[in-house]
Amino acid sequence: MLTLKIAFRNIFRNTRRSVTTLSTIAVGAAAVLVFGAYITYIEYGVQTGAVQRTGHFQVFRNGYFTFGTAAPASWGIDNYGSVLRLIQEDPVLKSISAVVTPVQSLSGIVGNFDNNTSKTFFGTGFVPSARDRMKQWNEYGTGSQGLKRSGLKDSDLSRGITGAGLVRILGLCDRLHLDNCPIPPPAAESAVTAAAAVSPVDLGELAKRDASPISLRSDSDPTVDLLAATAGGAPNVVTLQIARVELQPLKELDDNYIGMNIGLAQNLVYGRGEHKASGIVVQLRRTEDMKTARARLLSLFKEHGLDLELRDFTELNPQYNQIIGLFGSIFSFISAIIAIVVLFTVTNAMGMSVIERTGEIGTSRAMGVRRQGIRKQFLIEGSLLGVIGATVGVAMAYVVAYAVNHSTLTWTPPGQAAPVPLRLYMTGAYSLLTLTWTGLLVVSALAALIPANRAARMTVVDALRHV
Amino acid sequence: MEKNGNGLVVRLSNVVKTYQTGSVEVPAIKGISFEIPRQRFSMIVGPSGSGKTTLLNLIGCIDKPTSGSVAVGQQDTGALSDNEISDFRAQRVGFIFQNFSLIPVLSAWENVEYPLMLLGVAPQIRRDRTTRMLEAVGLAGQHRQRPNELSGGQKQRVAIARALVKGPDFVLADEPTANLDSQTGAAIIDLMRRMQEEYATTFIFSTHDPHLMSHADQTFTIRDGQLVDHATGVRSC
């Protein structure tokens, strides 16, 4: 107790030096915590975006994820309705899942024949109401990210959404009245026209030849024609009414993406054959239930002899781990630099303190304090510096987080198209708080070790003689 | 404690202390032997640089002789480990320094209590003894003040109380009046004498203050690291 009292009072003996040291520790702690809170927010934000897009898991026919994406029609899940029901009605999964819905991936050629333009596309067919429910997933309160409400109806197979780049390339900007959507220059336009002129048969005609036209055209929204090969290899064409244009986060995606009702996608891919689904999305209420869900799903597949595989959102969104890894490395680097700065600052402060108190050390030793008592004294002082500095730093971090969270700052997360409010996630980041606080305490104690050992090694006579 | 009891508190046998300065060996004490009896005012006197403080350090077990032995009571201090010698000092030796050497961040009361805390004395006993000792040195009213709020004389009173509070075998006082004016110095000498009698303690001084020397029960005169004279019954007041 007395050692603690002496340590505490000695910290404030040289106020200027102590304030400088404590400020370094506090600013270091605040910097680590604020950056850590920022990374936590990014992690939650990116996870939210990924889970909204792809769910926590997707169930595929075994081998699809590795080999089947180029030919989704050949890798559809047979009798997917029963698999869907199996998952939806399982008591364990029912209690922890938010959305279980089928999706159909596809690719092909999209054409705007009013403008004589066409290009390749890749797309997804989904259940619009399920997709909108997936959009509601917001476990961490990071706000609206990822998918927008599609505006599509489950019963309306004719309407879909496209990337902004796709409609630009197809020359639909003026018809869709889009901002920042330029019209192709004359040279490019003539090249497109020339290319169209040599085309013997356009997709429009193919569409007219299709025996069972699916879509109903509206007079107001522009339409495009989609051509794809069915599972049997025959060409198939459907017409899609562009109900909405969504800017995609990546240019490649933006220039190629089409989203549509799963019924339309299945009509295009499977024609009159059995309609399958390329995947079943499972979105959980809470990410922490992933382990339980994975175990249960795999158990169900085994139990029912289903040749299916399971992929989680980190596999479906490879950028997720890359982003978390990148920020994790930056965080480690910054933390290491701050730890080194704190280490040297505390060592310097404690070293000065030992020199100034040499006589006092001699007196204590003469009075019977053992060497380890002296060492302990300075170690406690260094640790106290760490405790006070880190505690002040935590308070500072909360103030900064409060200010930022109540500001109007926004940013665009990686993998997202639209800016979102900038937040610092201090609340709930208890492991980060504990690690930072304890880390600075340990660094401060370690920093005091060298001066403390020097003090403990002093001979009593030399210390007493010191002026 | 037995007053004016018989026996020796310290015995030095052919003590040699040599300091190494670079490659040069500087002899500070050259084979001194003497005995200090209990419950006396013993003084080691001599000119500056004669080896008084070195001898006091050896008696106080804060330095080790190059050869020879220092025995306190029946204990040869040369046989003790570093921790044992620290514990030995904590229990049996009190120090009064020329520059007071109080712990600056502790109050007068805490400075006096400090040695008892090192010994693990129970809180209630600690409080009683500290209070009594501060009253004995006339500082009951200043117990909350820190050293920088006390005068030189008051600081030395605190140092005396701190040295005596644990009831040591002997108190070593290195030039205790050197940093005090003559009037304060005289008062401090009177206080130490009174405390020595009241607590039946042995005081061992190093000094060249004639006024302090006039209070000696016995003196050991040192010159160039050698004992040149030993006189008893010097006390003149």
* Element string of chain B (H = helix, E = strand): EEEHEEHEHHHEHEHEE
Query: How much of the residues of chain B is beta strand, in percent?
Result: 25-35%
Largest interface: A-B, 23 and 29 residues
Radius of gyration of chain A: 32 Å
Give the name of the CATH superfamily of chain B. P-loop containing nucleotide triphosphate hydrolases
Strand order in the largest sheet of chain B: 6-7-8-3-9-10
**Sheet with most strands: strand arrangement of chain A:** 2-3-7-4-6-5
Beta-strand residue percentage of chain A: 15-25%
Strand tally of chain A is 11
| Structural class determined from secondary elements of chain B | alpha/beta
- What is the helix/strand order of chain A? HHEHHHEEHEHHHHEEHEHEHEHHHHEEHH
Largest sheet of chain B: 6 strands, mixed
Structural class of chain A: alpha+beta
Q: What is the approximate shape of chain B?
A: globular
Give the count of helical stretches of chain A. Answer: 19
Quote the CATH topology of chain B: Rossmann fold
Describe what this molecule looks like in 3D.
The complex is a heterodimer of chains A (467) and B (237). Chain A is α+β, with helices and mostly antiparallel strands. Chain A has 2 domains: 2-46 and 321-465, no CATH class; 63-306, no CATH class. Chain A has 19 helices and 11 strands. Chain A has helices at 2-11, 15-54, 64-67, 80-89, 91-96, 128-135, 164-169, 173-176, 186-197, 203-209, 251-254, 262-270, 290-303, 313-316, 318-356, 358-367, 371-405, 430-457, 460-465, and strands spanning 57-61, 97-112, 117-126, 159-163, 223-229, 235-246, 257-261, 279-284, 308-312, 410-411, 420-421. A 6-stranded mixed barrel of chain A has the order 2-3-7-4-6-5, surrounded by 5 helices. Chain B is α/β, with parallel strands linked by helices. Chain B has one domain: 3-Layer(aba) Sandwich (Rossmann fold). Chain B has 7 helices and 10 strands. Chain B has helices spanning 52-59, 82-92, 108-118, 123-136, 152-164, 182-199, 210-213; strands spanning 8-21, 24-37, 41-45, 67-72, 75-76, 93-96, 170-174, 202-207, 218-223, 226-232. In chain B, α3 packs across α4 (123-136), α3 packs parallel to α5 and α5 (152-164) packs parallel to α6 (182-199). Chain B is globular. The relative contact order of chain B is 0.20. Mean pLDDT of chain B is 89; it is low at 1-5. At the A-B interface, α1, α16 and α19 of A face α2 and α3 of B.
